[in-house]
Amino acid sequence: MRTSLDCLPCFFRQTLEAGKLLGLPADSIKHLMDEIGNELKHFPLEMSPPEMSYHMQRLFVALTGKEDPYLEIKDLSNKQALDVIDDLRKLVSESQTPLETAVRLACAGNIIDYGAFPSGVDVQAEITKILHQQSSPGGSASSLFDFASFHQALKSARRILYIGDNAGEIVFDRVLLETIAQEFPQIELSFVTRESPILNDVLTKDALDCGLDSVASIVSSGSKTPGLLLDKADPAFLKLYHEADMIISKGQGNFEALSDAEGPIYFLFIIKCEVIMRHIGGSLRDLVLKKNS
Questions:
Q1: Where in the sequence is the domain holding 34, given as residue range(s)?
Q2: Cα-based distances in Å from 288 to 94, 111, 251, 252
């Protein structure tokens, strides 16, 4: 997905709000915004938003002196989500349609995103909202939430790559993976992480801390961008990618990076900006489960 002109002011907004979240002084944030402006002069719109976000976040690393500026935020998000994993499992087990409920919860968990909401996310409040909202599995059909096609694809799949997105959110992914494993024990599941710290994106350590290895093999993509760019992934990962029967791409950043990619990809996320809303239709906060075209 190419960058929209509407993404440009959003880059500055993200820089401002992330700088405040990380406690940077005003002069440092101004310096970052100046540097972002210089980067944008040479940034072609044909490139994807995650590529610009990568440059932005490397500037934060250089300025803070921390290779992982979001480490404490990620650890807290993981802890808060793990505190309610049994509640999530209960919602799924008591549902008349467990798999669809697990998918909807995984979509809803995508709200834990410091790229889309750089000023901060009240993770506990968002989780509470998710747990208490009225879910409607089997409700009105939506072209953005094609559960029937997803379910059918699972029936014939043998190897699935689940491309993770954010810390905290991955606990919701774990519940979905557990549900898939229970219903389709023949499927070999692999969970994909980022190679190095970027925003609050999931690393191998986060996946292990949240117990994803209990239900899936943990694989690093080699990608360092907030969104999996295949041309920047490791050859070993690309071999797994091309051998997969089904790829579940979690999160808006991965959609931006993979929306034009080939392969049996199902995108699973929540719409968090007007650019994506216009790109695929729907409204802000709509849940998306959609096969690539």
A1: 7-64
A2: 23, 12, 10, 10
My answer on whether 54 and 127 are in the same domain is: no
Amino acid at the residue 236: A
pTM of the model: 0.90
**pLDDT above 90 as % of the chain:** 59
Read off φ and ψ for residue 169, nearest 5 degrees.
-55, -30
Residues of the chain with pLDDT under 50: 134-141
Alpha helices in the chain (DSSP H): 7-21, 26-41, 49-64, 71-82, 85-93, 98-109, 123-132, 147-156, 169-183, 204-209, 235-243, 252-258, 274-280
Report the CATH number at residue 143: 3.40.50.10880
**Owner of token pair 């991955």:** 170
Return d(Cα 58, Cα 38) in angstroms, integer.
Answer: 14
